[in-house]
Amino acid sequence: MKKQLFTTFALVSALSASAAMAQQKMDDMKGTDMAKKPAVSTPITHMAKGTVKKIDAKTGWVLMAHEPVNSMNWPAMTMSFKAKDKSLLDKLAVDKKVDFGFVKEGEDYLMTIVK
Ligand SMILES: [Cu+2]
Question: Cα(1) to centroid of ligand 1, in Å?
Answer without folding.
Answer: 50
